[in-house]
Amino acid sequence: MENRKALLIIDMQQGSFTAKTPRFDTIGTVNRINALADLFRAADCPVIFIQHNGTRENEFVPKTAEWELLSTLEVKRNDTFIEKYANDIFYKSDLETKLKELKINELFITGCATDFCVEATVQSAVAKDYNVIVVKDGHTTGDRPHISAEKVIEHYNWVWQNMIPTQGTVKVLDFEEIKKIMFR
Fold it and tell me: What is the per-residue pLDDT across 49-69, written as a single tens digit (0 to 9) for each?
């Protein structure tokens, strides 16, 4: 079966990028996500924005400022938007239905936060036998009480590179590698 790709952009919402919750290399991460999204659109591959709906926790409530995507993200009319309700994007969301409808079997994963929503999604996608490519420099997080954001990102990139895949594959590639290999 030919690989049909989709770009997932996880939780790049205003409420996750505040003065109280600074993220590592926000500008660089957003720039790489925007450039990658342009490549996907040009190749007629879906760009899927995932937004956390935290109504249950009374945060990230749809249509509030914290729920909105970062204004620096380039969003196009034909992009897809999916709400999620837990760290794992697949949990009680419409994502898997949408991916099946689009016949997607290869997911390029980007977004925030490396050690929560990105990690949970990578694990879930692997368990569901998707081919997964984590964009090594396309995800971010904040400093944690015992470790810097940069080290969290480095750690998870290592974890994902060393996972035992299921029937799918797992790769961790940086933006420049993806640009050269995937979109010639």
Answer: 999 999 999 899 999 999 999
Quote the pTM value: 0.96
- Check if the beta carbon of residue 174 is closer than 8 Å to that of residue 137: yes
5 in Cβ contact with 40 (< 8 Å):
yes
**Residues 100/47, Cβ–Cβ less than 8 Å:** no
d(CA 140, CA 112): 5
Query: If you count them, how many residues does the chain have?
Result: 184
Amino acid letter at 90? F
Give the domain extent around 165.
5-182
Question: CB of 87 within 8 A of CB of 47?
Answer: no
The CATH number linked to 25 is 3.40.50.850
If one counts every other C-beta atom within 10 angstroms of the C-beta of residue 110, the result is 26
